[in-house]
RNA sequence: GGUGGCGUAGCUCAGCUGGCAGAGCAGUGGAAUCAUAAUCCACGGGUCAGGGGUUCGACUCCCUUCGCCACCA
């Protein structure tokens, strides 16, 4: 058997956040790591989804081309995954020319087989942006309630569903221009032809998760309609028909074909360009798509129909779709920046605690809530206190009482036998759970093994038997060492970084999953270290307030490319200023009220440097100030400008000119 | 608006085909001292969102109201 595992292609208009991880990436990675250990022939394929209107819009807003936008995000996404320990065999992207060819060939094949038909439709077109506008990119007054901000698909105020043409005074959301109605030809995929085949195929998937099955049943009951697969855009995979000049494929058509092209890309990079066929053309291959629930219809209905229409590739075997992750009791929202971004997380914490906190509470059955309090408690009370402490107490005991020599297992007793048996049962249970996509329960079982270790250690009381019954004490430690050796293997899919540390501690080499049932135990302990650092309780409050400030400020697309043009930079008026006076603002530790001299004028500004600088220390110094910043009132004190300083955590350093200049001098 | 899902202990979640309500964390009491004051033992705690129905028996099946979510048009 071969396994071809995919995770939904992340859309390259933003970074990865916790919702993505919990839905499609972490469970897939755990599943794949387990299978790699087991020796299964498995490949794990993913890549950035780089086409579609949202990307063209985001690019336009940032003043760059779509290609520049995806070139910015693709590597960021890729790196975040790597740092988090998500190990794809290939993380590709849909802007590759290889992908273009694959999509076009795929299309031509289903076109030849008669599953594509052209149809003339009427759409709104913006003459200034020179493009047809998707529903969501038209705004206007709602014909039923008069709300002036109704979107082309729905009026948010009265909830009425709309057609873009129904809007009164429609305007293009990008440039504000009034769009006109134009006729255009689009090509449709004849999804309706596949109703019977899909029904039969789905009926055989008796073991699929009920959430997936119910979605599909609902769709089939309603009847399938043909879907347009082309758009009038310049960004995307061109439609390879002479009469379709200037049209590209709809992103939902090209993206899943990315699973195929990314596999081809993988094969090429290995120097075996035909290797991908061993998977995609092989009926012995199980194709597993990890996705979030928003993608179910697509992966369980449309994509299989596309594959049936093409008729050469295998169909999905498993679609373990997850529900959604909420944050602190509310929906996460990227547009309001109410999200936890993976790169932000990784800049502060190690990957494994998050992998664990997410794995133990995956949205497998329903939407689930991620809270920082839970993360904190999982890290401190479970990873550090149960798992970390078990390993540590055994290691320290062996070091201190046995000079680091691990006693070998000789003789036995009912307790020890029982513990080993329970541990072996856990290994077998985890196997069944992971293979049945019950990752959450599997993670619980993993922690359970450490808890069993603690219980055994306590009951055996080696600190007493060491002098009273040495043989018994030897046995206890031998069994504990054995449990740690097992833990090294079974933690690997969930906590790969920790597992590697344990391996170093026990000088363990490469092993397979099955070795966990009867693991080797070395005779000597290596360097030991604390596996999990406890986190202070303050982080709960800090992280929570970060979330709230993100959404309150209504910062839109915080994560847009940081590239700006020289013109934008020139808008910032930077000047050298001399600090005339400074005083603390009562009731704050960080804030200073400064009067600065800008040559022609004096100004009052508030600066958050009070922890690093006393008022006396800044008076008489030259500093750099943004003078054309909107005035703000901070703690009741007005501020007309902003002081520049280098800030790294608590360390704050003022930016000052290398030599004194006339106050008011421009900085460029 | 249509379709589907969810609502279970203070918190986060399990409960397959109806048969005495579960886990982890938090809480309370005790034991132990090898360990990152980490562990172990015991205990308390729920009108299973509200209402109605089917049944000997309903968290589970049916209807309905409320709240939340997803998808579709």
TrEMBL record:
Its cofactor is Zn(2+). A motif ('HIGH' region) lies at residues 10-20. Keywords: Aminoacyl-tRNA synthetase, ATP-binding, Cytoplasm, Ligase, Metal-binding, Nucleotide-binding, Protein biosynthesis, RNA-binding, tRNA-binding, Zinc. Binds 1 zinc ion per subunit. GO terms for molecular function: ATP binding; metal ion binding; methionine-tRNA ligase activity; tRNA binding. Pfam families: Anticodon_3 (PF19303), tRNA-synt_1g (PF09334), tRNA_bind (PF01588). One of its GO terms (cellular component) is cytosol. A motif ('KMSKS' region) lies at residues 331-335. Its EC number is 6.1.1.10. It catalyses: tRNA(Met) + L-methionine + ATP = L-methionyl-tRNA(Met) + AMP + diphosphate. It is found in: Cytoplasm. InterPro entries: aa-tRNA-synth_I_CS (IPR001412), Anticodon_Met (IPR041872), Met-tRNA-synth_bsu_C (IPR004495), Met-tRNA_ligase_1 (IPR023458), Met-tRNA_synth (IPR014758), Methionyl/Leucyl_tRNA_Synth (IPR015413), MetRS_core (IPR033911), MetRS_Zn (IPR029038). PROSITE patterns: AA_TRNA_LIGASE_I, TRBD. Its main location: cytoplasm. One of its GO terms (biological process) is methionyl-tRNA aminoacylation. Residues 568-668 form the TRNA-binding domain. It is an enzyme of class 6 (ligase). Gene3D superfamilies: HUPs, Isoleucyl-tRNA Synthetase, Domain 1, Methionyl-tRNA synthetase, Zn-domain, Nucleic acid-binding proteins. Belongs to the class-I aminoacyl-tRNA synthetase family. MetG type 1 subfamily. Homodimer. Is required not only for elongation of protein synthesis but also for the initiation of all mRNA translation through initiator tRNA(fMet) aminoacylation. This is Methionine--tRNA ligase. The gene is metG.
